[in-house]
Amino acid sequence: MANQFDVVVIGAGPAGYVCAIRAAQLGLKTACIEKWSDDKGKAKLGGTCLNVGCIPSKALLDSSHKYIEAKEDFAKHGIKHSGVDIDVPAMIARKDNIVNQLTTGVTGLFKANGVTLLAGAGKLLAGKQVELTKADGSVEIIEAANVVIATGSRPIDIPPTPLTEGLIVDSTGALEFSEVPKRLGVIGAGVIGLELGSVWGRLGSEVVVLEAQDKFLALADQQIAKESQKIFKKQGLDIRLSARVTGSEVKGQEVEVTYQDANGDEQKLTFDKLIVAVGRRPYTENLLATDSGVNLDERGFIFVDDHCVTDVPGVYAIGDVVRGPMLAHKGSEEGIMVAEIIAGQKAQMNYDLIPSVIYTHPEVAWVGKSEEEVKASGDEYKVGTFPFAASGRALAANETHGMVKVIADKATDRILGVHVVGPSAAELVQQGVIAMEFAASTEDLALTIFSHPTLSEALHEAVLAVDGHAIHIANRKRR
């Protein structure tokens, strides 16, 4: 029958569309349901990541970095110019074109791999049936041997700052500003808040970031976090920790924000725009029938085991809607794992080695354990660091901020964590991921030949520094 499938995936974000493509590649009759549509009623694939998340934000981050580099750094290279202006609508249009190119590409991949796209909202019923509600209100029941839930997440709203069109926005609205706000407030100093604050800060906004926690980047290695905070402060981001927002008031075309500072005193700030970036929550509204058998945990995530199996055999959940970091690459890998399990293959993923990246400039990235985590475990460890200021390639590129940090087990020499703030941090950490996936020791990387001159040499020097053998910096004396 036309409405019977081996696999039905609900959601076409980076977890769902990857799962659907891999399942189809493995010979399974596969359908993918997506309710997001454009103004012409055509399904928009790619989820938050491609449409209003990872991709558009990186487009704006790169555009804004090129602007500030031309404005402030070209002269250091001997490049003279009479002035640089930013055309915000053109920058936004470029971002939109990139998004359209990639989302259209996913549609092409579905066709190439034989995935059936079903436009509408999916709801899991009992017995692995899926109710498809189309845009015109008509309802169809889809029979599935296996169902994969990949409905993603949405920004968290907070009562003190209700969204107000054009003034108080979430991460989606922050990608659509038509001009540079003079005074920009950002609530939340996490990945999204720092990236969006960086974009508009480079273009000329006076940016104040209000963060409720008393630690900056609490999940990151704190030596790297402190170095990052110092760099961002130098760039002009006013990051205020222990700042708990208690209220907001729209006054004409301005927003007055009230917050409690570290001393408990009430403070007020006025902004032209306010971005609320306090995290995301799993998207499960109208997703599960009461008798579907699938359960949520205490935080609203779908409960799954290590292989993403829900409480119903043959029903899986992946990506932002389940436990673990809300990262596109984590969701994509879960999608591949689940597709291969459904096809009868043995598949698993290493949740201990999921890299994290903040795409500011310089980037901040890490994988594995932080020094705080290793210290808390009680295991003996050793650390090596190397500053980009001592890297010939970084100096040549005028990219000398930051450092590479490597943590290793003292007894076995096995690498436990790689942490970087600096140029191409994400790419350097990925080298660490590969090494750690193969259980490499610092000696393994120390004996590896790195091209010269490259930024990667900073990782090489950091692993050498673990045992006091760095060549291009003075080594700390070991006791």
UniProtKB/TrEMBL annotation:
<dbReference type="InterPro" id="IPR036188">
    <property type="entry name" value="FAD/NAD-bd_sf"/>
</dbReference>
<keyword id="KW-0963">Cytoplasm</keyword>
<feature type="binding site">
    <location>
        <position position="122"/>
    </location>
    <ligand>
        <name>FAD</name>
    </ligand>
</feature>
<dbReference type="GO" id="GO:0050660">
    <property type="term" value="F:flavin adenine dinucleotide binding"/>
</dbReference>
<feature type="binding site">
    <location>
        <begin position="188"/>
        <end position="195"/>
    </location>
    <ligand>
        <name>NAD(+)</name>
    </ligand>
</feature>
<dbReference type="InterPro" id="IPR050151">
    <property type="entry name" value="Class-I_Pyr_Nuc-Dis_Oxidored"/>
</dbReference>
<keyword id="KW-0274">FAD</keyword>
<keyword id="KW-0676">Redox-active center</keyword>
<feature type="binding site">
    <location>
        <begin position="326"/>
        <end position="329"/>
    </location>
    <ligand>
        <name>FAD</name>
    </ligand>
</feature>
<feature type="disulfide bond" description="Redox-active">
    <location>
        <begin position="49"/>
        <end position="54"/>
    </location>
</feature>
<keyword id="KW-1015">Disulfide bond</keyword>
<feature type="binding site">
    <location>
        <begin position="151"/>
        <end position="153"/>
    </location>
    <ligand>
        <name>FAD</name>
    </ligand>
</feature>
<dbReference type="InterPro" id="IPR012999">
    <property type="entry name" value="Pyr_OxRdtase_I_AS"/>
</dbReference>
<dbReference type="GO" id="GO:0006103">
    <property type="term" value="P:2-oxoglutarate metabolic process"/>
</dbReference>
<dbReference type="InterPro" id="IPR016156">
    <property type="entry name" value="FAD/NAD-linked_Rdtase_dimer_sf"/>
</dbReference>
<feature type="binding site">
    <location>
        <position position="279"/>
    </location>
    <ligand>
        <name>NAD(+)</name>
    </ligand>
</feature>
<dbReference type="InterPro" id="IPR001100">
    <property type="entry name" value="Pyr_nuc-diS_OxRdtase"/>
</dbReference>
<feature type="domain" description="Pyridine nucleotide-disulphide oxidoreductase dimerisation">
    <location>
        <begin position="354"/>
        <end position="462"/>
    </location>
</feature>
<dbReference type="Pfam" id="PF02852">
    <property type="entry name" value="Pyr_redox_dim"/>
</dbReference>
<protein>
    <recommendedName>
        <fullName>Dihydrolipoyl dehydrogenase</fullName>
        <ecNumber>1.8.1.4</ecNumber>
    </recommendedName>
</protein>
<dbReference type="Pfam" id="PF07992">
    <property type="entry name" value="Pyr_redox_2"/>
</dbReference>
<dbReference type="GO" id="GO:0005737">
    <property type="term" value="C:cytoplasm"/>
</dbReference>
<dbReference type="GO" id="GO:0004148">
    <property type="term" value="F:dihydrolipoyl dehydrogenase (NADH) activity"/>
</dbReference>
<keyword id="KW-0560">Oxidoreductase</keyword>
<feature type="binding site">
    <location>
        <position position="320"/>
    </location>
    <ligand>
        <name>FAD</name>
    </ligand>
</feature>
<keyword id="KW-0547">Nucleotide-binding</keyword>
<dbReference type="InterPro" id="IPR023753">
    <property type="entry name" value="FAD/NAD-binding_dom"/>
</dbReference>
<keyword id="KW-0520">NAD</keyword>
<dbReference type="InterPro" id="IPR004099">
    <property type="entry name" value="Pyr_nucl-diS_OxRdtase_dimer"/>
</dbReference>
<keyword id="KW-0285">Flavoprotein</keyword>
<feature type="domain" description="FAD/NAD(P)-binding">
    <location>
        <begin position="5"/>
        <end position="335"/>
    </location>
</feature>
<dbReference type="InterPro" id="IPR006258">
    <property type="entry name" value="Lipoamide_DH"/>
</dbReference>
<comment type="similarity">
    <text>Belongs to the class-I pyridine nucleotide-disulfide oxidoreductase family.</text>
</comment>
<feature type="binding site">
    <location>
        <position position="58"/>
    </location>
    <ligand>
        <name>FAD</name>
    </ligand>
</feature>
<feature type="active site" description="Proton acceptor">
    <location>
        <position position="452"/>
    </location>
</feature>
<feature type="binding site">
    <location>
        <position position="211"/>
    </location>
    <ligand>
        <name>NAD(+)</name>
    </ligand>
</feature>
